[in-house]
Amino acid sequence: MRQRGSRGSRAHSVAHSRVVAVLMVCGAGLTLPTANAQSGGAYQIKKSTFDTGGGTVTGGSFRLSGTVGQHDSGVISSGAYRLSGGFWSPPPTDTGVPALLISDPTGTDKCRFISFSAQPGTGTAALRVFLTSLHHVNPPYTGGSSVPFTSFEGQVRWVGPPQQYTESSSNPVLFATASLQCTPHYRSWSTVGLLHVTGSAIVPSSNYSVEMVASACAGIEDTPPCSTGGANVSASLQVKTTRWGDVEVPYNPPSATAQPDVGDISAQVKKFQSGSGAPIKARALLAGIDAFGNVNIAPDLSFDSIAACVNAFRGAPYPYTIQSCP
Cβ(285)–Cβ(319) under 8 Å? Predict the structure, then answer.
């Protein structure tokens, strides 16, 4: 009996050892990696990932919601596009109707620039410029015929990225300017302030229509919600330019007198000398650096802009043309 009992005890010991070994192996397989602790104030949250789970757990005034199959969350952005990953990603923003743009508070028109600003708090948007009426000169130039730009009327340009420039080396006052381009540029414009826009399509004796297009329109700018009068577009702001060489009062338009006159030439000389009371660079800068009249904004006003004003005073027509979009 003792011998039989001894064999049973040994069998029980072997079985017990096998069970312990299995539990140790399983326990090793189920071990979770240690999660780094995050703290905020009086609270501490241990971060970990589970392949299953979901639902809501509450305790006192606290509530924890989980999601089954949640993939890694985060934000990926490129240009005007933004992708938020995860079931708990934030809702899209800046999809409302942009506010109407504000005219230049000085009320001063310019020959080679159009100026406006965005209302405070305006979200991400693009600035669309319609070429409404281009270079309809009244009265006609006395020294030659004007270049017809009617073939460009009705086309669209977009305001590109803004940059800061100084008025001159002796006047460190900063101003913001941007050039027209053929593709939309989305950003928040309300922090830019007064913006002076130039480009080959900004020509004298012309009218433009400017509107803000919400970021929800990125890539679909020609669809009804994003076209003029659409739900994602602001009301249009009408802006005009002065006659070629006209940088000082009286302005044409509204005056129908031939401009520029000696007052415009005198204002150009004063700006060249960085004199007190000189016009801002956006009014005084006339001379282009290529056949399309594109301007170099960075350096001080050169004698070329004075010469352009003198030639216009003598009746010479606007010498540049408009660059086409691809």
Answer: no
Answering whether pTM is above 0.85, one says no
The pLDDT value recorded for residue 166 is 97
- Could you give the CA distance from residue 128 to residue 232 in angstroms, rounded to a whole number? 12
The predicted-structure confidence for 256-284, as pLDDT tens digits, reads as follows 889 999 999 999 999 999 998 999 999 99
Q: Could you list the residue range(s) of the whole structural domain that residue 146 is in?
A: 102-313
**How many folded domains does the chain comprise?**
1
pLDDT at 20 over 60: no
Q: Cα–Cα distance between 164 and 264 in angstroms, integer? A: 26
Output the 3-class SS for 176-224: EEEEEECCCCCEECCCCCCEEEECCCCCCCCEEEEEEEEHHHCCCCCCC
Diameter over CA atoms, the chain:
135
**Partners of 210 in beta bridges:** 129, 237
What letter would DSSP give residue 165?
E
Task: Identify whether 87 is part of a domain.
Answer: no
Alpha carbon distance 123, 99 (integer Å): 9
- Per-residue pLDDT tens digits for 157-171: 999 999 999 999 999
CB 164 within 8 A of CB 134: no
